[in-house]
Fold this protein.
Amino acid sequence: QVQLVESGGGLVQAGGSLRLSCAASGLAFSSYAMGWFRQAPGVEREFVAAISLSGGRTEYTISVKGRFTIARDNAKNTVYLQMHSLKPDDTAVYYCAARRLQIRTTTAYDYWGPGTQVTVSS
């Protein structure tokens, strides 16, 4: 049974930082590209960041470049999203996702976690 479980969300003031974690089980973690997506009320789910099998390639949506960093630890079956300089517009439910082999910046991923809430106050 494949499971992706996000953690690390919460309430933070504008300008602050959070680190999200996603623990994976039930899959060959190192054979999956990993991604982070987010969805705010009333808007479509959007791509945030992705990382290739061994971490050699990363992709970010333009609104988070320079502020967010995605990383993975294949020995721990965990992917992270380090978020700095948070803005109220970053408020959303953040989802972890896994895709077999190939990195993508679309929502075409095979498995999804239940999400974790990030709220940034002004």
The CA atoms of residues 6 and 22 lie 4 Å apart. The longest strand covers residues 92-100. The radius of gyration is 13 Å. The mean pLDDT is 97.
